[in-house]
Amino acid sequence: MGMLPQRQLLTDQATALLRDLAIKGHWGDTLPSEADLCREFQISRVTLRRALVQLAREGVIVMGGRGRHHRVVQTGGGAEQQTGRVVRMLSPYPRHRVNVTAQLVQNALLERLAKEGFLMQLEVHPGLYQRFSEREMRKLLTLPDTAGWLLYLSTREQQAFFAKAGLPCVVLGSVHGGVSLANVEFDLRSSCRHAAGLFLARGRTEMIFLTPMPMTAGDQASAAGFIEGAATAQQSGRVRVVNYDTTVPDLCRVLQDEMQRRPFPNAILVGWPEHTFTVLGLLHRLGYRVPEDVAVISRLDDQYLSYSIPSVARYQVDGERMGRRAAELLLDQIYHGTGKIRSIHLLPEFVRGETLG
Prior knowledge:
Layout: H1 10-23, H2 34-41, H3 45-58, E1 61-62, E2 71-72, E3 86-91, H4 100-115, E4 119-124, H5 126-130, H6 134-141, E5 146-152, H7 156-165, E6 169-172, E7 182-186, H8 188-201, E8 206-212, H9 217-232, E9 238-244, H10 248-259, E10 267-270, H11 276-285, E11 295-298, E12 313-316, H12 319-336, E13 343-346, E14 349-351
Parallel strand pairs: 3-4, 3-5, 5-6, 6-7, 7-13, 8-9, 8-10, 10-11, 11-12
Antiparallel strand pairs: 1-2, 12-14
């Protein structure tokens, strides 16, 4: 066709040609197959993939994946090329409202990404967690200079949206069933299975898992592991998942209702570590002794739990390690394309405490 890229800066040349032809509508709404594009431009599949990934970051195309053709979403000319040096983290909460572990994750991400010349920006959109809107999500994809995405406490709809978009993206936490995205997570299913065994070993058979709504994929995995642990032990226990709306007043209302049941729960697994203090304080107010009447384990650790009396049984996690591993996954996608989906599981470490007994 008389427009072959020169060997010098081959990937940049291929990207520029593809961008120009796609925006001008040369192929319409759908790109030819990758094999046809390689023949047309006389470039390797590796070079082509790097160019396509860059165009996807710029919002010119949406990667097809699994044999489907890539779609052109930006046509008509006048598009401004993005340099792609900002990594955006989607979150329902601003930084000051997340626990210490989450802050350590963010610190490690900032540091590792900065070494590669990337900035990290928090995109706080609580409304998208309360009610999913594909229109609003698409607006996020138009944010300038975006290199990739990190998803924190993400919903199934959010994860499915980014999986379909084909952009560099890593989930901080568990991935919902049926969604194909890279992720780094603490192995909460295993630790909660272990927690159920610890309760049962101490004769605690009336167990509840306190977790806020909406439940993340990690919360669902935790509940599944807790139920598995209670069912596989020699002495089986009864497990119920009890939800509240993330606020302290609602947690108190829900827990007070639970403690009025007969038999009352004698083992509590607390989903959010910062709410462990609330649980301990309310049990004391209601006249229940910990651990004599009720044993308590925090699913995750938090810096402030080490100051508690009685000492809190909990699972310690390495937030800095999670942040570093997530950054490495995302950087690999930014530089080399999404490729094979990778999932990294980090095993929490149990810390003994007086609240277990």
